[in-house]
Design brief:
single chain, alpha/beta, Quinone Oxidoreductase, Chain A, domain 1, Rossmann fold, seven-stranded mixed beta sheet, six-stranded parallel beta sheet, 18 strands, binds zinc ion, Zn_alcohol_dh, ADH-like_C, oxidoreductase, oxidoreductase activity, Alcohol dehydrogenase
């Protein structure tokens, strides 16, 4: 049996479509036929060679849902349900070792020293080869954490849970208090930002403010019930900050969430916060051009600045259940549905900021 795959062979070059033989499934592994795969903003950084984790050649794609075609042995999902052929599943993109200091002692598996990530650090030249979601089939290895999905779930929407959804959930772990009565500002209106905004809203934040450059995302923002959308390009930084101070009795936001993926957002984020506020830096996933920061701006306001790196099984499972409950709002985020053959056009649209979420749904 063969599988169509899209392979990154060289950085800054289009993905190459191929048809390859499906290898034997490793012990404890699953062969899954993709139903939907998400194209992520970080795929662009990967293609440009900016992510130091990425080996070549590689099948990209770290977000997906699919149907179990073959199981080599027994496999249970995170809820303890035994999987069978034909089940629809979603999987955690990262596989952690469970043995290292971070997994075992600190119980922070998202920091695992041996974390393997489908579509990011698994080479196409490494057995069992089909280790990314820009492919007709993916092979999930033994330690992969999966969740069986109900037949009623909208599978295209569910792909969001696997990456940005789970990472947004992780960010909220660092809030010391609940959000009742507070103001949360989200910088960046991509899937990560919108998921974060939705979480803040559903956790009872008084004001959720979204700062975004993309007009496409405003409709979704309205569905989520975001209280204030600030179109970045229409205002100066000073004006944007004033808008946030206007809704917070002149104090600034309790929480700011960076979901832009760019260092350039950070200095503004610090200014948006009230004294003692919390800055969650969630979006920055690749090394960046340096920016000047005066740490006095952090110490003099007694700010908490928290980096947030990827996610683990807890966050992943919460993200899946959140989308199951609220898929109507997240469905609006998907602006393009493409075939695997159209992947390079899809990546181009994303790069030119002409798309919201792009999903591959024809393999
Ligand atoms: Zn991603
Ligand atoms: Zn580990």
């Amino acid at each position: 049996m063969k599988a169509k795959v899209a392979v990154l062979e060289e950085f800054n070059k289009p993905l190459v479509l191929k048809s390859v033989e499906i290898p034997e499934i490793p012990s404890g592994g699953l062969l899954v036929k993709l139903v939907a795969s998400g194209v992520c903003g970080s795929d662009l950084h990967i293609i440009e060679g900016k992510d130091p984790r990425v080996p070549l050649p590689i099948i990209l794609g770290h977000e997906g849902v699919g149907e179990v075609v073959e199981i080599n042995g027994e496999k249970k999902d995170l809820n303890g349900v035994s999987l069978r052929k034909g089940d629809l599943i979603i999987w955690n993109r990262g596989i952690v070792c469970g043995e290292c200091f971070y997994c075992k002692v600190l119980n922070e598996p998202f920091l695992c020293e041996n974390r393997k990530v489908y579509g990011i650090n698994r080479s196409f030249s490494e057995y069992p080869y089909l280790l990314g979601a820009f492919s007709e089939y993916i092979i999930l290895e033994e330690k992969t954490e999966v969740i069986k999905l109900s037949l009623k779930v909208d599978l295209e929407t569910m792909v969001i849970a696997g990456c940005s959804g789970a990472t947004a959930v992780h960010a909220f772990d660092y809030l010391k208090d609940n959000l009742l009565g507070s103001t949360v500002v989200v910088q960046g209106g991509g899937p990560l930002g919108l998921f974060s905004a939705a979480l803040a809203k559903y956790q009872g934040a008084k004001n959720v403010v979204l700062i975004t450059g993309s007009l496409k995302r405003i409709e979704v923002a309205q569905k989520i019930g975001i209280d204030l959308v600030i179109k970045r390009d229409e205002f100066t930084e000073e004006e944007r900050i004033k808008k946030v101070y206007d809704v917070t009795y002149g104090k600034g936001a309790d929480v700011v969430i960076e979901a832009t993926g760019f260092n350039s957002a950070i200095t503004e984020g610090i200014k948006l916060l009230r004294k003692g506020g919390t800055y969650l830096i969630v979006g920055i996933a690749t090394p960046q051009d340096k920016i000047p920061i005066d740490f006095y701006d952090i110490s003099s306001k007694n700010l908490n600045v928290q980096g947030v790196w990827v996610s683990d099984a807890r966050h992943f499972r919460k993200a899946v259940t959140f989308i199951e409950k609220h898929e109507d709002i997240f469905r609006e985020m998907i602006t393009h549905r493409i075939s695997l053959e159209e992947i390079n056009e899809g990546l181009k649209l994303l790069k030119e900021k002409k798309a919201g979420k792009i999903v591959i749904n024809r393999f």
